[in-house]
Design a protein that fits this description.
The complex is a heterodimer. Chain A is mainly α. Chain A has a single domain, classed as Formate dehydrogenase/DMSO reductase domain (Formate dehydrogenase/DMSO reductase fold, Up-down Bundle), CATH 1.20.1630. Chain A contains 18 helices and no strands. The radius of gyration of chain A is 23 Å and the shape is globular. Chain A starts with a helix and ends in a 9-residue tail after the last helix. Chain B is an alpha+beta fold. Chain B has 2 domains: 8-49; 100-303, Alpha-Beta Plaits. Chain B is built from 9 helices and 13 strands. Chain B starts with 11 loop residues before the first helix and ends in a 20-residue tail after the last strand. In chain B, 37% of the residues are buried. Residues 1-14 of chain B have low confidence and may be disordered. The chains are: A mainly alpha, B alpha+beta. Chains A and B meet through helix 6, helix 7 and helix 16 of A and strand 4, helix 4, helix 5 and strand 8 of B.
Chain lengths: 442, 323
């Protein structure tokens, strides 16, 4: 490879992966739309702040509603960073390189917003600081706060460290960069000049982070499942809740990554980097984790269903054939069994079909959380009597729905910003893997 | 003198001399500090003693932990009951030496709902908010229906207290589980954890909030109720402090409730005011607890609905309006 070829290829990669870093009309319209939607949702939240949680459909018996289902979903989706980067990355799967940053971006966005989602469920959000001032370590909520914060910080570092080299390249090589942005990249690049010593420090730090990320990620969703499993209620009182939640999280996260891959590839013209092969492989990942999840589903429903203890029997009756049956079977069949069957075939792992499957899986994943959180509370051990009808049957209100939409908008904003101002695909790493070697810094 | 043990030191004797001199000086210094501290302590003690007046009039008092002590009458100071710290200590500490217990006789309940009204009145609750609720129960299709007043079971192993992230709900030594609504963050984990559905939440502005807004918070009555916080039965801790029976117990026209102290092995019927032995009452009538298999160790006992004094009637009371 001559020096000239080298430069050309490197310049092409740089331009391919950074040409989207500019403020264009489409970006402004999209961000304007997101901001406006967010403002509407924030207005709904201001009503809740003023008049209390009563604006939502939750009442004394079904006391955890959509907000909590949302929280579980957000924690779940954030787990994918660990699966893609840490588990598969440490095994040494090379094809992952262009996907790692997408996975980490999703992890950071969902983990950051999960904390806000739970605040929307608090009757006294202004007392949030009490959790730190008066925190009781016996309460699983304290464990959740601790591990989610830890996981968020680890994920943020894992997003940032591989970006250092990229930012050094951007602030030197990208001519189209808006002038006010250049110094930002310079600061963020931490004077990286591609010295072997620098690369060594970064790669060692990344490796340590990847290893730390695995227990942190397992903890966040296991502890989140314990918010339910530590109670004695039918439907929650389960010993497999930890792995059941973790495997479900991988399903939701993999689907989210595939959806993000599809849109980045199309919008940022990354067809040469996110190839059909990547969608095929991610389809296989999604199919695998879905199978694991199916296994835990069978455990979760078959074992209590076989014994039919009184409270379990009522719970399962409602899910299988009662008022939640339609949603339950739609989620189990449409969001789990059918996708697994389709994904066995190569032609359904092509970008467009796998996108459609992933969207179905992700929507089902949200409703699955809804089915885990709400029906259990509709039949407590003692009968619900002498209360208004809306205490017996939960139905979310418009304000509650808007407040639940807000976190999704926030996630989209975070993902949009990260992907817009940084290469979606690791630039330095890709260059190295293509055998271009060291970047020449002038 | 650790230096002495250093083997093969080239200048052993020098070292030894030097180190012992240093140690000597150090010891002098330490002794000096010690003497000075002691002297200061003695002096301040002397000053204190000199200031202290003794009336010679000794009072014998009973401390909270049940000890008799002798105190000079001049040293006895009345505590300011409004002091927040004192209130907190008194409230969280409970009533010393007591183990409150309730016995509900299901054979006598005819769903008069007087207990509920008294409770809702005392605790400023809306009609749909129950610290105490009478449920129409039927354990299996073949068994007879009965009325079951259900309140917080004041468990000795309370799942609600275990999960509270901020210590807002707590178990007192006298057996009562209370909530401090100044502390509650409204996460409702306690409500999810309670198998008896005993806890309620102030979803909207509490009843007559404007009327009670200047009222000082009383954790033993949990009024005024606060928006966005959890509430529940308190065994009328405020009444117990005054030596009275709980609101519901007193209000019952049918003699359903017995209330008392497990340590004394005595419970008093709220209607007849008859005091009976707790152990005998439970033994003779087959007393039981709700869902003991969950390991919550409730402090409320039930006497089975045997030989009911009233026929069971389907509840006809109007359901509270939607809120």
């Amino acid at each position: 490879m001559t020096m000239d070829d080298n430069k050309l290829t490197f310049d092409k990669i740089t331009s391919d992966l950074t040409h989207h870093i500019r403020i264009n009309k489409g970006f402004l319209i999209w961000m304007g739309f997101l901001t406006l939607s967010l403002l509407i949702c924030l207005y709904a939240y201001s009503i809740q702040l003023k008049t209390g949680l009563g604006v939502a459909g939750i009442r004394d018996y079904i006391t955890w509603g959509m907000y909590l289902a949302n929280f579980v979903f957000f924690v779940a989706a954030s787990l994918i960073g660990m699966l893609i980067s840490a588990v598969l990355g440490l095994i040494g799967m090379k094809w992952l390189t262009p996907i790692t940053r997408i996975a980490e971006t999703i992890a950071v966005a969902f983990a950051a917003v999960a904390g806000l989602v739970i605040v929307s469920d608090m009757g006294r959000p202004e007392r949030l600081a009490y959790v730190f001032i008066y925190g009781r370590p016996q309460s699983p909520i304290l464990w959740d706060v601790t591990v989610i914060t830890t996981y968020f910080v680890l994920s943020l570092l894992l997003l940032f460290l591989p970006m250092i080299a990229d930012m050094a390249i951007i602030h030197r090589k990208v001519e189209t960069l808006p002038s006010w942005l250049r110094p930002v990249y310079k600061v963020l690049s931490l004077n990286f000049t591609d010295q072997p010593a620098q690369n060594k420090i970064i790669s060692r730090a990344i490796r340590i982070l990847l290893i730390l990320l695995i227990p942190a990620a397992l903890s966040i969703h296991t502890v989140t499942s314990w918010l339910f499993a530590v109670t004695s209620r039918a439907g929650w009182d389960s010993t497999v809740f930890g792995p059941y939640f973790v495997s479900g999280a991988f399903v939701a996260g993999s689907a989210a990554v595939i959806i993000a891959m599809f849109f980045f590839r199309k919008n940022y013209k990354l067809q040469d980097y996110l190839t059909d092969m990547h969608f095929d492989k991610m389809g296989k990942v999604l199919a695998t984790v879905s199978l694991v999840y199916l296994y835990f589903n069978i455990n979760e429903f078959l074992v209590p269903g076989y014994k039919l203890k009184r409270a379990d029997a009522i719970h399962l009756q409602e899910l299988f054939a009662g008022k939640d049956a339609l949603l339950f079977w739609a989620v189990q069949v449409g969001g789990l069994i059918l996708p697994i069957l389709f994904m066995l075939f190569r032609r359904f792992r092509k970008p467009l079909p796998i996108l459609i499957i992933s969207i179905a899986v992700l929507i089902a994943a949200w409703f699955k959380r809804y089915l885990i959180v709400i029906p259990t509370q509709e039949h407590p051990f003692l009968p619900i009597q002498h209360v208004p009808g809306n205490f017996i049957h939960y139905s979310p209100t418009l304000i509650e729905t808007l407040i639940s939409v807000a976190p999704f908008i926030l996630v989209l904003i975070i993902i949009t910003l990260i992907s817009k101002f940084f290469p979606v695909i690791p630039l330095h790493e890709t260059a190295q893997e293509k055998g271009i070697g060291h970047i020449k810094f002038d | 003198m650790e230096d002495n043990h250093t083997p093969h030191s080239p200048n052993e004797s020098d070292n030894q001399k030097g180190s012992s001199r240093r140690d000597f000086l150090k010891n002098i210094g330490l002794a000096g500090v010690g003497v000075a501290t002691g002297a200061a302590a003695l002096y301040s003690g002397h000053i204190f003693e000199a200031k202290k007046e003794v009336s010679g009039d000794q009072k014998v008092l009973l401390t909270q932990d049940g000890k008799l002590v002798r105190v000079d009458s001049l040293e006895i100071k009345a505590l300011d009951k409004d002091d927040e710290e004192i209130r907190e200590t008194m409230c969280r500490g409970g009533l010393p030496g007591r183990r409150w217990v309730m016995v509900t006789d299901l054979s006598k309940c005819r769903n008069a709902r007087k207990c509920i009204n008294a409770c809702q009145g005392a605790h400023q609750l809306r009609p749909e908010q129950y610290h105490m609720n009478t449920l129409q129960m039927q354990d299996t299709p073949g068994t007879a229906p009965y009325n079951m007043p259900k309140n917080c079971q004041h468990c000795d192993n309370p799942p609600c207290v275990a999960v509270c992230p901020v210590d807002a709900t707590y178990k007192r030594p006298d057996g009562i589980v209370l909530i401090e609504n100044d502390r509650c963050i409204g996460c409702r984990f306690c409500m999810a954890a309670c198998p008896y559905s005993a806890r309620i939440f102030n979803w909207i502005e509490p009843k007559d909030a404007a009327l009670h807004q200047d009222q000082e918070y009383n954790a033993e009555l949990n009024v005024p109720q606060k928006l966005g916080t959890v509430s529940k039965c308190l065994f009328s801790a405020d009444r117990l402090r005054e030596g009275k029976l709980p609101y519901c117990v007193e209000a019952c026209p049918n003699g359903v409730y017995y209330f008392g102290d497990e340590n004394e092995d005595a419970v008093t019927n709220g209607t007849t005011k008859e005091t009976v032995r707790l152990s005998k009452l439970l033994r003779d009538n087959g007393g039981y607890q709700l869902m003991p298999e969950l390991g919550t160790k409730p402090r409320v006992y039930y006497l089975p609905p045997k030989n009911r004094l009233f026929p069971f009637e389907e509840a006809t009371d109007a359901t509270p309006e939607k809120v």
